Amino acid sequence: MQLGALLTQSLRHSGVNELFGIPGDFILPLLQQLQDQPDALPFYYLTHEPAAVYAADAAARCANRPTAVVLTYGAGALNGVNADAQAYEEYVPLIIIAGYPSVKEVASGLQIHHQAKTIDSQRTIFTEITCAQVRLDNPDTAANELQSALQQCQRNSRPVLIEIPRDAVDFNLKAAKVVLHETPQAVDELAYQRLVEALGTARRPVILSGVNVRRSGAQFALERLAEQFNIPIVTTLLGRASVNPEHSCYGGVFCGAQDTRACQLIYDADLVLAIGVVYTDSNFSAHQALIHAEHFHRIDFPKQPLKLFCARLASEPLPLFDHRDLTPIQQRETTNFSADTVVREIHQQLSRQRAIVPIISDVGDCLFASLQATPSEFLAPAYYASMGYAVPAALGVYVTSQRRPVVLVGDGAFLMTGLELAHSLRYGCRPIVVLFNNHKWDMIAAFAPTLKATALQHWQFPQLAESMGIHSLRAHDQQSFAAAFAHAWADPDRAHLIDVWLPENSRTARLQQFAQTLTAINKTGASEV
């Protein structure tokens, strides 16, 4: 069996329906062989390696299954390291297929182009940001090693590295050994019984749902558990997509702010059941005493089978807990035009639509403003926070869902990956891109107000968009934005960019509070602010 046939077959068996990447010399033979397969996977290529990884990352998050990205040796794979690190930290099942020199090239004793310190530096670097690394350089073992890597990607919901030498396409591969189904993971009995006992005496329990509830397929089991006993559910910022916001027990997003219903529920609880949560500084720097409290119970992935844990807990003879107020606490709405104003308008317009509309947010003020909406599909790098994610992510979401996404992106992040919009058009993706233009890196300015290296004036985004074949509008206030967004939504056959000029000092209160909290903690070393 040829490598291309084996790889296509194995990827499809793992749930992969598409490939992302950029052609490069070390993977050209492989790409040709993959293209020639009767059941070839479609290949979506972009301009820059981080963007290709972001697109694959978004496809995996949206479909909740592995996706694959193909990059050349060294210059390609190493250029995608940051994006892959984000996927690793946010538990995204990516399959990184990277080129590698042939036997003849390695034996030459020469420095190979794209090589870093050693011929194996690529693999060494990726050991830090993947849960498994294999090199398919032996035709007798390649099939089994490939199968092992794909299984670890699915089991851990994290990236793996598969290196493929340039000459591996000439292998005559042996079929993989049949692998028996793994023994199902068992619930930690001691932790489980301790939790059941605590729930038996609790009066105000709350579930804190993290991103790994979705990654492990435990969403419906967790929602049923909450319904069974009338337990409120709040999510972390990274875990927003882990619970349906229309669920009867949903209490909002716990993101550090004190003046929210989610925070009130958490701090009023006499038992917090944290399921699949990633404990990040962005969520918990100001709440370290909470997560170390005796009434805070952690059920972590992949240590625990979250779906089984929730299903078993739902069968226990526990009491039906008293109803608690889950209505959002009304925030004082400023009359100033801001990112919050923009997202509230988007939410109001989309709430009148019957279609499910994915919202993809980059980092910065647009991420905090996104809390003004409650989309059923939401993607954002809400912990690792690498800029430039949202625009290429729109392609990944479209590829897997065929839904038209709305993209929230700041001007700084757009300058990093905005040109990838031209590739989206080629593949039929027609997003609505809402560009929050405050003419600076405002996230940086929030942390360093006197720093002079944050200005981004004089970029003509409408002209840039038009040069890519994207219709562009500009908005300066709520009325003009409402009209622009309504026009874009009513025109699904074109991609639209709305250049939203935000006034000076329009930073959202959430971003300002976030920056002040982290800055104060880092200055004082205090665990609570």
TrEMBL record:
Record domain Thiamine pyrophosphate enzyme N-terminal TPP-binding: where: 1-115
Domain of life according to the entry: Bacteria
Names of the cofactor(s): thiamine diphosphate; a metal cation
Domain Thiamine pyrophosphate enzyme TPP-binding, first and last residues per copy: 372-500
InterPro entries in the cross-refs: DHS-like_NAD/FAD-binding_dom (IPR029035), PDC/IPDC-like (IPR012110), THDP-binding (IPR029061), Thiamin_PyroP_enz_cen_dom (IPR012000), Thiamin_PyroP_enz_TPP-bd_dom (IPR012001), TPP_enzyme_TPP-bd (IPR011766)
Any Gene Ontology biological process: aromatic amino acid family catabolic process to alcohol via Ehrlich pathway
Domain Thiamine pyrophosphate enzyme central: start-end pairs: 193-287
GO CC entries: cytosol
Keyword Lyase: yes
Keyword vocabulary terms for this entry: Decarboxylase, Lyase, Magnesium, Metal-binding, Thiamine pyrophosphate
GO molecular function: magnesium ion binding; pyruvate decarboxylase activity; thiamine pyrophosphate binding
Family: Belongs to the TPP enzyme family.
UniProt-recorded name of the protein: Indolepyruvate decarboxylase
